[in-house]
Amino acid sequence: MRLPSLIYILDEEIHAVLPKHVDTGSSAEKLRDLKLTLKASHVVNFFASPEDLAAKVTQDIVRMVGAMAKQPAAHVLAQLATNAVKRHPLTPPRFAFLKQQVAGVFKHDVPNSILREALELTIGGDNMAAAFVLSRGTPMPLDDAVDGLMAIEQVLTKILQINKPKQASHVNV
């Protein structure tokens, strides 16, 4: 059985890291690779301060303990596995392009790390997880996050339509 995990990474977009606390060389590469692996395979929460981390850990532990008190049936576990979070990792140029395309969609400022995760989840087809990430990582209410994601879906649809390969007309000779 897989143990539940709560993963938190410092949001470097919001909280500056002092140079004396920055890894360099191979250590920096290993840390970057670890963060990328965690982001690709788990739901990762970001924090901006020790207080923010403490609040998020406390909320998540209370929620997890409550969920563990209810022993799910085998069919529930199978459904959870089927609906596991799917993310579509974005390269830096793709994220920059999409960020530009969706600028102004949200009323609240959305840190790059939160926007990236929400876009990756949306592209992966998990809008509820994306809405949760937005409402958790910003002061944005869940309803505003859902509305914004609906607008983002329209932007993504337009991008796909514009870049759809043109059907070659068949000419009989």
Task: Note down, in words, how this protein is organized.
This protein has 173 residues and is mainly alpha-helical. The protein folds into two domains: 1-84, no CATH class; 86-163, no CATH class. It is built from seven helices and two strands; from the N terminus they run βαβαααααα. The protein has helices spanning 25-41, 50-69, 74-82, 92-101, 112-123, 127-137, 142-162, and strands at residues 7-10, 44-47. Strands 1-2 form a two-stranded parallel ribbon. α1 (25-41) links the parallel β1 (7-10) and β2.
Give the arrangement of secondary structure elements.
Layout: E1 7-10, H1 25-41, E2 44-47, H2 50-69, H3 74-82, H4 92-101, H5 112-123, H6 127-137, H7 142-162
Parallel strand pairs: 1-2
Instruction: Output the structural class.
Output: mainly alpha
CA radius of gyration: 19 Å
Strand order of the largest sheet: 1-2
Inertia-based shape: globular
The total count of helices amounts to: 7
How many individual domains?
Answer: 2
Average pLDDT taken over every residue: 80
Largest sheet: 2 strands, parallel
